[in-house]
């Protein structure tokens, strides 16, 4: 159970990461805001509470690993890594410009702290299972944390990984679905319905929980529980809101990748901060 001080610390970090993400995209003028904002609490919790990592030594032996398989959420990954101290925050203003170390989608060859290159949906999930297997073969007591999208869950590769990971009894693989009910251009239910995800993951032999993905305490309880389950991989389904906290994107379907400039970004940040007071 998180104590009050830790919870408030994490909530403040989450707000700071939301602000950086908006500013980073506004500076470029366009970017994947929706699926970045929906996973802010989750990634904040992982990097600022759960994961054993050292920003000054991104390749630390025996570290926990993080794979954002929905690689288009690069902006929130970078805002988090910068907040954690992997690289200077000024780098955020180079998002996806020529020669940058922060391309729109996560790239392990460019960005300190990125554990796997993602962007082609489904592939990061398979890589995460392989990484978790490698950790176990090396007898490390470390975990691999994986985030997939609900639209991404339509990929056949996700379910090949699901079967492999349970066969291998990868108890050190803890996955999250960012269940924001939307994909690139609409509601998931209207495109390829992904209802009953609990039953589906259970059927593939996983330990399954479902939480409010914007409630850091609930995420903490679910992760603590998942860590106790050693004979199966874990899926934590996180109910989230696409574009959560970004006033121009919340509640509309065209919020996957949006165009907005610095003035609109600063107004949205004002609204976000006002709403949290
Ligand atoms: C294999 C593959 N097919 C299509 C795309 C294009 N694409 C990028 S994001 C996206 C929608 C993903 O939806 P979801 O997983 O729900 O992400 P989120 O809502 O969290 O942004 C699509 C179709 C891709 N990157 N990779
Ligand atoms: Mg989605």
Q: Key features?
A:
277 residues, two-stranded antiparallel ribbon, binds magnesium ion, 42% helix, Rossmann fold, five-stranded parallel sheet
- Overall CATH architecture: 3-Layer(aba) Sandwich
CATH topology value: Rossmann fold
Mind telling me the CATH class?
A: Alpha Beta
As a whole number of angstroms, the C-alpha radius of gyration is 17 Å
Count of separate DSSP helical elements: 10
Structural class: alpha/beta
Number of strands: 9
The largest sheet is: 5 strands, parallel
- What is the domain tally? 1
Describe this structure in words.
- The protein has one domain: Rossmann fold (3-Layer(aba) Sandwich), CATH 3.40.50.
- The strands form three sheets. The protein has a five-stranded parallel sheet with strand order 2-3-4-8-7, sandwiched between helices. The chain has a two-stranded antiparallel ribbon with strand order 1-9.
- 42% of the residues lie in helices and 13% in strands.
- It starts with a helix and ends with a helix.
- By secondary structure, it is of the alpha/beta class.
- The mean pLDDT is 97.
- The site of magnesium ion has 7 residues, from strand 5.
């Amino acid at each position: 159970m998180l104590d009050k001080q830790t919870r408030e610390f994490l909530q403040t970090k989450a707000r700071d990461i939301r602000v950086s993400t908006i500013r980073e995209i506004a500076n470029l003028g366009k970017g994947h805001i929706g699926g970045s904002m929906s996973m802010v609490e989750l990634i904040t919790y992982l990097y600022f509470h759960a994961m054993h990592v050292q920003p000054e030594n991104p390749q630390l032996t025996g570290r926990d690993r993080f794979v954002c398989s929905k690689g288009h959420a690069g902006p929130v990954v970078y805002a988090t890594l910068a907040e954690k101290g992997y690289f200077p925050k000024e780098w955020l203003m180079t998002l996806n410009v020529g020669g940058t170390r922060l391309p729109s989608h996560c790239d392990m060859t460019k960005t300190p702290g990125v554990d796997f290159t993602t962007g082609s949906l489904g592939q990061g999930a398979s890589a995460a299972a392989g990484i978790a297997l490698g950790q176990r073969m090396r007898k490390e007591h470390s975990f691999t944390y994986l985030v997939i999208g609900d639209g991404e869950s339509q990929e056949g590769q996700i379910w090949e990984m699901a079967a492999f990971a349970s066969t291998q009894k990868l108890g050190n693989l803890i996955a999250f679905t960012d269940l924001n009910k939307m994909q690139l251009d609409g509601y998931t239910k209207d495109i390829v319905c992904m209802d009953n995800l609990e039953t589906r993951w259970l059927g593939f032999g996983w330990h399954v929980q479902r939480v409010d993905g914007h409630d850091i305490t609930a995420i903490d309880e679910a992760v603590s529980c998942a860590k106790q389950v050693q004979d199966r991989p874990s899926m934590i389904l996180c109910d989230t809101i696409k574009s959560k906290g970004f006033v121009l994107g919340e509640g509309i379907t065209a919020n996957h990748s949006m165009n907005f400039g610095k003035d609109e970004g600063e107004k949205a940040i004002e609204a976000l901060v006002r709403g949290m007071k």
